[in-house]
Amino acid sequence: MKDPLVHGPRAVYKASATLLGLLLVAFLLSQLAACGFLSKDTELRSEQASAEEKKGADADPLAGEPIPYSLTISVAGEHQELVPLMQAASTLHVFAAKPPDSLLGIESRARSDTETAVKLLQSQCYYEGTASYELDETAKPVRVSLLLNPGPRYSLGQARVHYQPTPKIPPNFAKRVRSYGLFGLDQEELPGAEFPENLPGLTLGKPVTADEVLAAVEALPEKLAKKGYPLARVTAQHYTLNRELRELHADITINPGPCATMGDVQIRGNDQVAASYLASLKPWKSGEEPWDEDILEDYANELRHSGLFRSVVTKPLTEKLGEGDGPLVLPIEVAVKEAPFRTIGGNLHYDTSTGLGAEGSWEHRNIFGHGEKLSLIAPVATEEQGLKMAFEKPAFFSREQKLTAYAQALHENTEAYERTGLSAGLGVERRLTRTLTGGAGLFGESGVLEDTDHSQQSYSAYGPSFFLKHDSRDNTLNPTRGAVAKLTVKPSAGSFTEDFTALDGTLGANFYYAPFRDDNGVKSDKLVLAARVEGGMLTGPKLSTLPSSMRYYTGGAGSVRGYAYQAIGPRDKEEEPMGGRSYQLVNLEARYKITENIGIVPFVDGGMVYTSEMPEIIGDMRWGGGLGLRYYTPIGPVRLDVATPFNPIEGDAPVQIYISIGQAF
C-alpha angle 359/362/365, rounded to 5°? Predict the structure, then answer.
């Protein structure tokens, strides 16, 4: 036995010495770290070790490697159209690139897919359909087979529609007539309000999918909203199966709501555009037109295309719809966000005969707060320099009518003449029918002309002008179908070498046809066949009495490509173009799109100018043709045409090149 008195003090001494040593080491380490001698690598290794320890602690010890698998979907019988539908809905198929890490995970996906398959079969009217799966665990990768057994397909036995309460149909809702244009002469009979007993769009006795039934149910209130019942809604849907007859029965209940007419518009969000102007553009008389979602959308699109707004949103103010026995008036809220009204632009064009030309433009689309548009254009080209102004006031005393005006100060220098002069005009245009527009106005011009026979000869002309235009094109910048025809008549009086009176008449028509359709049956713009025919006649004075700038000319980018500007027609003693009193023009194009943005256009043009008052319909026309390239942009196609004359004029270039924006016609 040890002596406790001797052992105790020695143990205390040794413990004190050890503690003192540890404190000394800690002090030295802290000083070394403070002085920067402790390695940062040591700290980093320490942090990495801590991270690894944490990672190890968080890791799932049961996790395994992903187990890849292959999937085969088969359908019993002849209903193979179900395979792609099942692929789109299958968890196994959609997440095949991310396989689970166990066979249990694959089996879980397969069980989920069998449940999905049964629902899919039922949605396609296979209400007795079943599904099963098999797993081959020995295969590499694991093989999963999914089998669908559709069974018999059910047909639609009945699709009844019940209306609660019974709808009220006023006389003007049962038979509807919509008027257009001047004095309402153009009228269109519209289908009256109808409340079918069976769901429209479905055929009894035929198989039907769930999507088709639901789409028909959703469409019925929308159809009623277009015929005067904007608050129609589905209140109940009941579906039953007759397994003995293998039929689906549908019973739909609809509350038609009160009948309503189009009311006043309440504009919100406008700042500089007058609300009274926007209200004047609505194409209905408040309280008279049965409610129609289509006519409301037409009105909204008209505002969107005005260039005044970034956005236009319309909605019926149903909370302000009152009660009553007759049709109720439903007001409409129009929420707008104004866009900048000023635009600065420009474009370049080039052709071989006239060279490079430029044009700058400035436009204000709301100059007086009622959608008035003022445009200033400054052409700078070899054949034309100066300033052009155009003004347009829409809804001029009527939404179908607009006031137009123009003024020009130009210097023209062509092979035929050199002119410095002023011109102006004022007119009114009115929509007569949905596709027909008419106009009348006054024009005047004066200036100084110089040509082969006249040096600095002053001239003037003035008179009324009239036009009638039919336009059924689908797009004015890049039409793919429809036609446009215009007749213009301009009686005039004036003086040049002597006083004269003349009657100028032109008639032209453009036609566009797209022969192909896309997969949805909609007309495709892959190929557009375009044609233009045009002619004019100027009766009254002799050719020498007419100012050179009022005569007809053809040749160049806008008429017959392959020939120089104004080159076709009679020549003077200096072999310069002298113009004529009549002309005819033919253009043919096949506009084929290679891609969505790039197209090629083979074309043939023909034309001739005559000194006689009437064109020679079967005359010695000049023909040219070539190939064009189009790059389609949101503002219209960029055009490059390369053309050659088929029966060239002596001295003309063998090839003409034209570059500009927009189609040739």
Answer: 140
Enter the tokens of residue 50. 């801590």
CA distance 291 to 172: 12
Please state, in angstroms and rounded to a whole number, the distance separating the CA atoms of residues 82 and 433. Answer: 50
Mean pLDDT score of the chain, rounded to an integer? 86
pLDDT at 183: 64
305-336: buried (b, 16+ CB within 10 Å) or exposed (e) per residue? ebebbeebebebeeeebeeeeebbbbbbebeb
Residue linked to tokens 């007859």: 245
* Token pair of 650 as six digits: 């002596």
> At 432, which helix (H) or strand (E)?
none
Inter-residue contact 555 to 645 (CB < 8 Å): no
Rounded to whole angstroms, how far apart are CA atoms 568 and 425? 29
The type of residue at 299 is Y
Q: Are 172 and 290 in contact (CB under 8 A)?
A: yes
Q: Taking the C-alpha atoms of 221, 224, 225 and 226 in order, what is their torsion angle to the nearest 10 degrees?
A: 130
* DSSP E strand boundaries for 170-224: 176-180, 186-190
Let me know: does 186 contact 194? Beta carbons within 8 Å: no
Residue 20 clears pLDDT 80, i.e. is over it? no
Query: Does residue 325 carry a pLDDT above 70?
Result: no
376 C-beta neighbours (distance < 10 Å), count: 14
Euclidean distance between CA atoms 276 and 279, whole angstroms = 5
Packed helices 82-89 and 103-123: angle between N→C axes, nearest 10 degrees: 130
pLDDT tens profile 107-138: 999 999 999 999 999 999 999 999 999 999 99
451, 548 contact by CB (below 8 A) = yes
- pTM recorded for the entire structure: 0.72
- Residues 524 and 101: their CA atoms lie apart, in Å, by 49
What would the two tokens of residue 283 be? 């194409």
| Distance (Å) of CA 220 to CA 114, 126, 231, 551 | 34, 26, 12, 61
* CA dihedral of residues 137, 138, 139, 143 (deg, nearest 10): -20
